[in-house]
Design brief:
The protein has 105 residues and is mainly α. It is built from 2 helices and no strands. 79% of the residues lie in helices and 0% in strands.
């Protein structure tokens, strides 16, 4: 039984083509995995950004009103505490509406 040059070539080319196909599939799977991981990371960063956007101004207001000085007229008002809570609620509502209009949340 005599094998020709083309039979040997075909025998060697088929595994090489199969290797190339498997290698390309593995690269596609790896790229898909990286895309999904990046998407999850972006979603997490988006959520953290929303939380920080809500709480940063509120923390600032609470920090100002938590200082020990006596030169703020609101501290002596009968409804000064409600004023600061109302201000925080208004700021939160504005941030919420802004995020809704930008379709972030």
């Amino acid at each position: 039984m005599k094998t020709s040059h083309h039979d040997i070539k075909d025998t060697l080319v088929n595994p090489i083509l199969l290797y190339d196909e498997v290698n390309e599939d593995a690269n596609n799977l790896l790229n898909t995995y990286h895309s999904v991981t990046a998407r999850k990371s972006n979603d997490t960063m988006k959520l953290l950004t929303v939380f920080s956007a809500f709480f940063l101004p509120l923390t600032f207001i609470a920090g100002i009103y938590g200082m020990n000085f006596d030169f703020m007229p609101e501290l002596h008002w009968k409804r000064g505490y409600l004023f600061s809570l109302g201000l925080m609620a208004i700021i939160s509502a504005i941030i919420y509406v802004w995020f809704k209009r930008k379709k972030i949340i």
